[in-house]
């Protein structure tokens, strides 16, 4: 396989590295439904094709980080998911764009070039029902709650928290989402680069009781964790949040099911 380079994390370069996943529409996931493979998009989507090839070679379900996607003249930050045959199961367009201005820390505006997605993505895979988010999506418990309501067993977030917010919030948010929804949370971050955008790193796996199952540091590495789905039912029996929620006081608005 020919190595493929995609995506310095720079709003000025998103359009340069943008790929076409074959989507015909911008509405609620329409751009990905009906697309069984990206093999025919080798020129328009080299990164997606490389991911599909790796998934097929290894026979694994692959959540492919995120790449800039161009669809109908709009740019999205998109995470594509492939099955063990290399077929495109679906994709998530980042719902919450990273627009922040932290005095003495970091200023960044994804909305200067990107369009937000509008779907709470949940996909059936060979390794369970996955809810997919991207980086800043992790901060929004409402999105996670909708995905849990749609039956997600695992929430997966490729992300690149920075070295300002990462030490305080990266693990904290993962554990909070896991405890709130009594499911597994998996995150994958780039390793720290010698120059340019400085990612916090620390890819992590968290269990449904908020326990850190496995993690790493900022250097290149691999995190291994075994997910026992029977723990979901056990935790929910012990602390039955679903039965204890107060529908007379508040309610979850889920505008549709995946």
User: How many beta-strand elements?
Assistant: 12
Instruction: Give the name of the CATH architecture of the largest domain.
Output: 4-Layer Sandwich
What would CATH call the homologous superfamily of the largest domain? Carbon-nitrogen hydrolase
Q: DSSP strand (E) fraction?
A: 15-25%
Give the CATH topology of the largest domain: Nitrilase/N-carbamoyl-D-aminoacid amidohydrolase
Structure in words:
By secondary structure, this protein is of the alpha+beta class. It is built from six helices and twelve strands. It has helices at residues 14-17, 46-58, 141-149, 166-181, 230-238, 241-244; strands spanning 62-63, 67-71, 74-82, 88-93, 99-101, 107-109, 122-125, 128-132, 154-158, 184-188, 204-206, 212-215. A six-stranded mixed beta sheet has the order 7-8-9-10-11-12, with helices on one face. The longest helix has 16 residues, at 166-181.
């Amino acid at each position: 396989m020919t190595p493929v380079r995609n995506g310095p994390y720079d709003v000025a370069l998103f359009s340069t590295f943008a790929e076409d996943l074959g989507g015909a529409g911008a509405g609620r996931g329409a751009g990905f439904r009906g697309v069984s493979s990206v093999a025919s998009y080798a020129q328009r989507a080299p990164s997606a094709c490389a991911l599909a090839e790796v998934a097929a070679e290894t026979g694994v379900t692959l959540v492919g980080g995120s790449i800039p996607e161009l669809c109908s003249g709009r740019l999205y930050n998109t995470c594509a998911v492939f099955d063990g045959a290399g077929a495109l199961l679906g994709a998530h367009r980042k719902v919450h764009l990273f627009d922040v201005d932290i005095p003495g820390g970091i200023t960044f505006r994804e909305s200067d070039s990107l369009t937000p997605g509008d779907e709470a993505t949940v996909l059936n895979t060979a390794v369970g029902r996955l809810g997919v988010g991207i980086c800043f999506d992790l901060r929004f418990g409402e999105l996670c709650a909708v995905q849990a309501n749609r039956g997600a067993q695992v929430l997966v977030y490729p992300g690149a928290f920075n070295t300002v917010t990462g030490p305080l919030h990266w693990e904290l948010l993962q554990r909070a989402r896991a405890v709130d929804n009594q499911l597994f949370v998996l995150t994958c971050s780039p390793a720290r680069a010698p120059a340019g955008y400085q990612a916090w790193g620390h890819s992590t796996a968290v269990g449904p009781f908020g326990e850190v199952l496995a993690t790493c540091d900022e250097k290149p590495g691999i995190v291994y964790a075994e997910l026992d789905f029977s723990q979901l039912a056990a935790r929910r029996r012990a602390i039955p949040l679903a039965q204890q929620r107060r529908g007379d006081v508040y309610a979850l608005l889920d505008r549709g099911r995946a």
